[in-house]
Design goal:
heterodimer; A: 317 residues; alpha/beta; D-Maltodextrin-Binding Protein, domain 2; 3-stranded antiparallel sheet; 15 helices; 40% helix; 17% strand; elongated; B: 688 residues; mainly alpha; MetI-like fold; 4 domains; 81% helix; 0% strand; globular
Amino acid sequence: MKSVLLSGLSVLALAGTAAAADLGDTGTPIRLAINEWTGQHLTTHVAGQILEQAGYTVEYVTAGYYNMYPAIGEGEIHAALEVWDSNVPDLYYDVLDDGGVVELGDLGLTAREGFAYPAHVEEICPGLPAWEALNDCAMQFATAETIPQGRLIDYPADWGTPGAERAAGLELPFRAVPAGSEGALIAELRASTERGTPLLMVFWQPHWAVSAYDVRFVDLPPGTPECYEDASVGPNPNATSDCDFLPTRVFKITWSGFADQWPAAAEILTAYQMMTEDQQPMMGMVDNDGMSVEEVAAAYIADHADAVAAMIAAATE
Amino acid sequence: MSDVSLPAPSVMDRLTPGTKAALLTLLVGALCLALESATEFLPVWPEAWTLPVTEWIGVSLEWLFDIIRPAMRLISAALEYPMVWVNWLLVNTPWPLIIGATVALGWYAGGLSLALMSGVGLGFVLASGYWVEGMNTLALVFVSVPLALTLGLLIGIWSNESARARPWIEATLDLMQTVPTFAYLTPLLLLFGFGPVVGLIASAIYAAPPMARNTLLGLQRVEAEVKEAGVMSGATRLQQLVQVEIPAAATQIMIGVNQALMAALSMVIIAAVIGGFDDIGWEVLLTMRQANFGQSLLAGLVIVVFAIIIDRISARMATSRERFDVRISWVILAVAIATSVLAWAALPAPGDMAVLAPTVEAVDGALTSFTRSAGATLDSIKNNAMFYGLLPLRIGLDGAVLPFTWGFSWTANMSYALFAVAGALGIAVAMTGRMAFGMCLPIIAIIVETGVSDLPWPFVLVGLGAVAWVAGGWKLTRLVVILMLLIAISGLWPRAMLSLYLCGAAVIACAVLGGLLGLLSAVSNPAWAVIRPVCDMLQTIPLFVFLIPVLMFFQIGEFSAFLAIIAYAIVPMIRYTRHGLVTTPPEMLESAVSSGATEWQIMREVRAPYAAPTILLGLNQTILYAFAMLVIAALIGTTGLGQSIYIALGAGDVGLGISAGAAMAILALIADRIVQGFAEERRRALGL
């Protein structure tokens, strides 16, 4: 596993040349949010173990991704380390505007969202991954609810409706059906893979299911900010949203009192980075090989002992 | 709908209420259809007539929250102490001791069978590897239940003491039980702050009403002589209450305790959505997110085991005064203590158990292979149900009949033909004397042609009002119309109609299927022996668990949601139908047997009419359950009020959450009152 764990922290150790700071209140545990998905657990536990190595006590608090922001704003939870811009709720911006939370910069994950399908669908719709192929194959994807259009499974309604917007922008003969929950998306993937049935959905990576079900992304027209503002950009001259998703920002946030109470910890978390190529294999170890999150995180720290030490040193000395 | 028709001077007087109601509904429906194309405002409630009620609620609640937040935070801080203590105690007590104590209690309350059940049940929890999470869950239940019991007891006493407050209290209790918990999670979170206390309060809110209702019922049933004895001895009202009436009502109150425990357990999973607490509910959510059926079933069964143990022991203690030899309990406890002390170092940590891992994988594998092999059959089941059942009901024949589905396009002429046939049939039936039923036929034709979600709003309003009038007179009609107008004004009408359609379809299916299963259970004991444990499990397992297989079989969409709702809501229909049919008084049966009636005739002529009020009560419960499940069904992609509640939860939109929750409660309340009205009438007709 060493071979896959090359890049990560060595990069960030260079980035973390911030000013030295006091440890601050090491007696009070730093409470880190644990949300509902494995990648986030790993991101958080690796960060937590670095903080512990620096001399802090860390407490992991389970917290619903959609509901945790007021709690962070009030200092009941101190940091959330993997916030996805693509489905952050409005509640977050309310708390941010009130000055309850502070952003600590990007995490380093290169997240991708897009129209996705399990590999076997390429046999059903041979033109894939080119998006134009979807025009001709739409009937293959049709179901009782969407006939005569194809069915595109969109994100759960509370994450927004990116699939519907792009299907409209590209004038694809698909009807977007909200998934309801992440579990529903995965269940669809499972069933489609087992039965060899067609499936088109909005999905993202890094996600454990991408490798587990050999999920591939449709090549949509290149996504640019202009495409979303100017109708004339992109294949459809009359609409915006006729292109691929913009890269999603994944970032870290803390309670606004964090830097005062734990100055060095704030430096460490600011410098902290987690790369997709590091997180993805670790997710596999937890979800497929049955290792515990703590073990995998500890192994990662051990493999990057020098980088971690340098990072702590940069923050404290 | 009574068939009493006395000769009377005018035609209107001769019509039964049912006939009048159907006639009015039919007229309004026909009028709406005729004017549909000519007017703008008839088919859909006009945008201009809505008020930003949702925003007002949001703003005023936030204003209120700012005022009461400090006080609520104090309560929250105070509740955290017992919560932490109980949690610490349960997690740190050696597991042999907890199992031993439960088995000892099981023995004391119910003898060998309960002791064995407790042992096997907790052994399963231990083997599952979810022991620690399970203890966290129990900590939540053990703190929220006393809270709910105190609250419920006080509310029950208050409504017994004050006849004037009673209707208001009952309405509040209804709201506490029908507004979906998801709708008020965000407000609770803002008020009480983050953490397990929110889950605790949510489950206390949900668990208090059954306690209050049973307390009131118990106090009302205390016999007059008993009360008089207290009064004669010169007791004050408080002494009278504490020393005479409450002890006399103890059995009924204990049933309330049992119900409150079960309600609190069923809320555990929903409270987990917030997090803050590493409990079983959180585990179910995580495994559900991975669509890992085997593992989430295992975690869900832990809750079922807790529910069954708590239910059986507390129910036995509530209903039976018999107790078993307490000395044996002490022996069991002593053995448990000895094991804990002597073998502590050798005992494995409860969290490390993974005895059931192979079973879990086998279950998951079985699901996979079934999905693969039965895929085509499942698809055709789904397509048939959608094309010929659900879709026409939702968007009407005029929208659902397409060349892709039925093989041809629906035309306006077909609509006329349908109406003509329904009208002719209706007249024919009406000629035979069943006027009301005859008039219902064209009404049904209108609904099927237009589709529930596209029905003109005046038709729905008048139709519901008319049914309410038949069931409960003008007072009920006024309530129903005002409440429905409230939904319309807040702009939630279209979503409410979608919810109404999905729930309606599920309730009809439950009534037919559940009624048949109930009938089967009533006539055949072996059938009941199979059906009963299934019912128990369906009622206590977190329903999230079943969403996974349903999704894998039938994909995201309405049909899956429809099935999920049925799975939950069918249970009361089965139970009450069976109960009603088997409890027919023996003397009624004897007279029927002696008059030479066959088994089937007895069922139709004696048992069924006698059971009607009970069955209607079951239907009532089924309706409430169906609405409760609607929110959870939104997780598999429905589009009604349930989804609004999720969107509000995600966006932290207090106003939308509360008003969508209230709209759902309104629909449930209307259905409840109407069915209760009919049940009351049947009971009066039977002289009960």
